[in-house]
Automatic annotation (TrEMBL):
Keywords: Membrane, Transmembrane, Transmembrane helix
Domain of life: Bacteria
Name by which UniProt lists this protein: ABC transporter permease
Matches recorded under Pfam families: ABC2_membrane_4
Keyword Transmembrane helix appears in the UniProt entry: yes
This protein's record includes keyword Transcription: no
Coiled coil (residue ranges): none
Membrane-spanning residues: 21-43, 63-85, 106-131, 151-173, 180-200, 223-243
Length: 250
């Protein structure tokens, strides 16, 4: 156990030392809060002006969770960089000399990624919600409104699992380019487009981001199903990543 903790401490030190990973975490905070404020301010203006462009299904409670859906892109980048950086730089050889047991090294990387994602996701999810309600002014809702605490908790779990999914995909690809080229477009627009096309609508709802989004939907009755589906995707990605990591020969 002490060797595993030492490996985890080393990974934490690497995370702080590499500028790109720190920037990704800061971007998650900045983007999430900015979109939360912008969305609340925009919705307030639409409500007070009677703008018909306001979504018919708009609720202040759900609007408070929109920011992190955009911010998650930065956390996906963070997860990819946490695993891929040492493959592309060749530093994986040095890490394996320090931690010869590949399972221990892989566990340390995934654990540090999960803890870092959780540490930022928890406060940012709550702050983003509150910022949206503040921007909405008299049209805002409370933190303890019906369904909101569960959706906030679901959002934190969702963000953490998506970060781990990115770790697994990056380990399987052994690079940053392919995972980012697949995951970012998929989460940003791909699955949303597929979810409104008749031929792919049923399939798209089982994609990790679409299924997981049920976890942070305030009035969703499928939050548990979404969690199970996202867990399955994450476990599959981490397993594939571990198999590739175990067979890496430099």
């Amino acid at each position: 156990m002490s060797e595993t903790l030492a490996a985890a401490r080393a990974e934490f030190t690497k995370m702080r030392a590499v500028r790109a990973t720190s920037v990704a975490l800061l971007l998650f905070v900045a983007v999430s809060v900015f979109i939360a404020a912008l969305g609340g301010w925009s919705a307030k203006g639409a409500i007070e002006s009677g703008n018909p462009g306001l979504r018919s299904d708009f609720t202040p409670e759900q609007a408070g969770l929109d920011g992190i859906l955009y911010g998650q892109l930065a956390l996906i980048v963070f997860g990819v960089l946490m695993m891929s950086g040492e493959y592309t730089s060749g530093m994986m050889r040095v890490s394996l000399l320090a931690v010869p047991r590949r399972g221990r090294l892989y566990l340390a990387k995934t654990a540090v990624t999960a803890l870092a994602a959780l540490a930022v996701a928890l406060p940012v999810t709550v702050v983003s919600y509150l910022v949206t309600q503040l921007a909405l002014g008299p049209h805002g809702s409370a933190l303890d409104a019906d369904g909101v605490p569960r959706a906030l908790a679901g959002g934190v779990v969702y963000l953490t699992l998506m970060s781990l999914l990115a770790v697994g995909v990056a380990a399987a690809a052994r690079s940053a380019v392919l995972p980012l080229a697949v995951l970012l477009p998929l989460v940003l627009v791909g699955s949303q487009i597929l979810s409104v096309i008749g031929a792919t609508k049923e399939v798209a709802r089982w994609f990790p981001d679409r299924a997981g989004a049920q976890m942070l939907t305030v009035d969703s009755g499928d939050a548990l199903t979404g969690l199970v589906v996202l867990l399955a995707w994450t476990a599959a990605a981490l397993t594939a990543g571990w198999l590739r990591h175990r067979s890496w020969d430099g």
